[in-house]
Specification:
This protein is an alpha+beta fold. The chain has three helices and 14 strands. The strands form four sheets. The protein has a seven-stranded antiparallel sheet, sandwiched between helices. A three-stranded antiparallel sheet has the order 5-6-7. A two-stranded antiparallel sheet has the order 1-2. The protein starts with a helix and ends in a 10-residue tail after the last helix.
């Protein structure tokens, strides 16, 4: 439930027209840029790799998320609980998020059951282990998805990527690299 609300928030910010204004300095560190539409400054904490991939490190919750080359950061949420990135053509979305596990709302078992019960999609892969799970498949509209979620008694974090399923072969290496490089780091952030 928390993840779906967070995803809805990210979706709404996208629909409201916020665009990425991420820029990297000559050392690959992000720097703030002005959004002409809203005249606000914001910064996304990423490090640029030699191959164009970025590493996003969430200061509040501590998770680390590899981001494919060419993805742009969308306006971050005011509470700093995550970040959404989008491909230049808008067909691929990558969202990383973290949260406090308040009143056990991010419970792994409950989240797992909710994930499996979601309507309008076919699950092609699922795996649950101690402290985390992965679910992937295809939505009715032909969008492929891959979600990884981790939780302990105090924190939860995860990421989801969506992409055109017809281009799965193109995006499979992205998913694999993100999955290998992602670190939930529960409890390792500022919060």
């Amino acid at each position: 439930m928390i993840r779906r609300m967070r995803f809805l928030f990210f979706t709404l910010t996208t629909l409201m027209g916020f665009q990425s204004l991420h820029a990297a300095d000559d050392k690959g560190q992000s720097r703030p840029t002005a959004n002409a539409e809203t005249e606000e400054n914001w910064q996304v904490p990423v490090t640029l790799g030699k191959d164009g991939w970025m590493i996003y490190k969430n200061p509040r919750f501590g998770f680390v998320l590899p981001v494919p080359a060419g993805m742009k950061a969308l306006r971050p949420p005011d509470n700093g609980d995550g970040q959404r990135f989008e491909s230049a053509d808008g067909k691929v979305s990558l969202t990383g998020y973290g949260s406090h596990n308040v009143d056990n709302m991010g419970d792994l078992e409950t989240s797992w059951k909710e994930e499996l019960a979601m309507k309008g999609r076919t699950i092609t892969y699922k795996k649950k282990a101690d402290g985390w799970y992965v679910v992937s498949g295809v939505m009715e509209d032909g969008t492929g998805f891959y979600t990884r979620y981790a939780a302990d008694k105090k924190h939860c974090a995860g990421w989801t990527i969506t992409y055109p399923q017809t281009d799965e072969k193109r995006y499979a290496p992205w998913v694999e690299r993100i999955a290998k490089g992602y670190e939930a780091r529960l409890g390792k952030g500022q919060d």
